[in-house]
Automatic annotation (TrEMBL):
One Pfam family this sequence matches: Aminotran_1_2
Aminotransferase class I/classII large domain residues: 31-370
Keyword presence, Transferase: yes
Protein name per UniProt: 8-amino-7-oxononanoate synthase
Superkingdom of origin: Bacteria
Zinc recorded as keyword: no
Cofactor annotation: pyridoxal 5'-phosphate
Record field: catalytic activity: 6-carboxyhexanoyl-[ACP] + L-alanine + H(+) = (8S)-8-amino-7-oxononanoate + holo-[ACP] + CO2
GO molecular function, one term: pyridoxal phosphate binding
The protein's enzyme class: transferase
BP term (GO), one: biotin biosynthetic process
Annotated PROSITE patterns: AA_TRANSFER_CLASS_2
Keywords carried by this UniProt record: Biotin biosynthesis, Pyridoxal phosphate, Transferase
Length: 375
């Protein structure tokens, strides 16, 4: 049978307790949400929803074509200008997703003959970028600038070091300044994915590279998603104008992909303007994360100290993690559940997101439910 092997794999997954299922979310879900990546609580903000609706009314339901044909509206250009200005970079290019932005950045900055040095715990989209790139990839230990130095060695030709700024599983931050130093010693570029830093870290949420003093540097390129703090959808690459022009000409996920939907561009732009007006949202997300961590630790749970807005709690096994998350859900709390194969170290976790709009009472309730349902 042509697809018999799929049933064999499904059976293996069932036996290992690793089956994934989709759970459609009703619009009026009563659950307290600590599972989404809506760090600033903007996805449902009326201005953001109106940003989407208004853009759809003006520009239509879709962008109608690839960015180089009909898919670039004035709204896309406005969004790119404002994102670049906010994050402190010369230029920006938006993509239909953060995933596509990462594939573009890694493949374009890692051409044939180049060396790509990649952190062992990078996000899947960066890993896939390395797999697609024509350059050779060397994976180094997690958050290890000396490992990066060693890997760069005496490589001749283009080299780029690739890292998340905030790692999506444990929420720990990369040592950006030290990575930049290692890159500069060896003449390599630095490419960082600020998906979990934008809107949370740096002055008013300008991101981790901004906080590390790397914004606008001519050897630093940043990717980010519009789908987390900005409560929308889409991705962006930020960097020197020459790099952005090169992406326009060479990045396959830019050239051969329909441009970001106008509604997503409109929502992201509205969220960005809101964040500019209300910069305290970023600090509040960090505060909520610190409070969650402190309360979970006080309750005897093994939580990782958060560097941004992701709080990770260790679970004893994949099965217990799944049951724990399900018990939380039954008790009215939505939490993320990370387990193999999504976690390269094999450690299963509950993953909580510290939304800036969580109240003290909601934080207390979340910690109580997690404590009461622990395996
Ligand atoms: C670190 C990181 N990079 C990239 C992405 C992909 O972004 P998008 O969801 O916009 O495709 C994600 C998750 O969504 C992520 O966590």
């Amino acid at each position: 049978m042509a697809f018999g092997w799929i049933e064999e794999q499904a059976e293996q997954r069932r036996r290992a307790g690793l089956v994934r299922t989709l759970r459609p979310r009703p619009a009026d879900s009563p659950l307290l949400d600590l599972a989404s990546n809506d760090y600033l609580g903007l996805a449902h903000h009326p201005e953001v929803a109106e940003g989407a609706a208004g853009a759809a009314r003006i520009w239509g339901g879709g962008s109608t074509g690839s960015r180089l044909v009909t898919g670039t509206t004035e709204l896309h250009t406005e969004l790119e200008r404002e994102l670049a200005g906010f994050c402190g970079f010369e230029a920006a290019l938006v993509f239909s997703s953060g995933y596509a932005a990462n594939l573009a950045a890694v493949t374009v900055l890692g051409p044939h003959g180049s060396l790509i040095v990649s952190d062992a715990l990078n996000h899947a989209s960066l890993i896939d970028g390395c797999r697609l790139a024509r350059g050779a990839t060397q994976v180094v230990g997690h958050a290890d600038p000396d490992g990066v130095r060693k890997a760069l060695g005496t490589h001749e030709g283009p080299a780029v070091v690739v890292s998340d700024t905030v790692f999506s599983v444990d929420g720990d931050a990369a040592p950006l300044a030290a990575l930049a130093e290692a890159c500069r010693e060896r003449g390599a570029g630095l490419l960082v994915d600020d998906a979990h830093g934008l809107g949370v870290l740096g002055d008013g949420g300008r991101g981790a590279p901004y906080a590390a003093g790397l914004a606008g540097a001519d050897d630093v390129v940043v990717t980010a998603t519009l789908s987390k703090s900005l409560g929308s959808q889409g991705g962006v690459v930020l960097g020197p104008a020459g790099v952005i022009d090169h992406l326009v000409n060479a990045a396959r996920t830019f050239i051969f992909d329909t441009g970001l939907a106008p509604a997503a561009a409109g929502a992201a732009l509205a969220a960005l303007r809101l964040l500019r007006r209300e910069p305290a949202r970023a600090a509040r997300a960090r505060e909520v994360a610190a409070e969650l961590h402190a309360r979970l630790t006080a309750a005897g749970l093994e939580a990782v100290r958060p560097d941004a807005a992701v709080v990770s709690v260790r679970a004893p096994s994949p099965e217990q993690a799944v049951r724990w998350a399900a018990d939380c859900r039954t008790a009215g709390l939505a939490v993320g559940c990370f387990r193999p194969p999504s976690v390269p170290d094999g450690i299963s976790r509950l993953r909580l997101t510290a939304r800036a709009d969580l109240s003290g009472a909601e934080i207390e309730r979340a910690v109580r439910v997690i404590g009461e349902t622990r395996p």
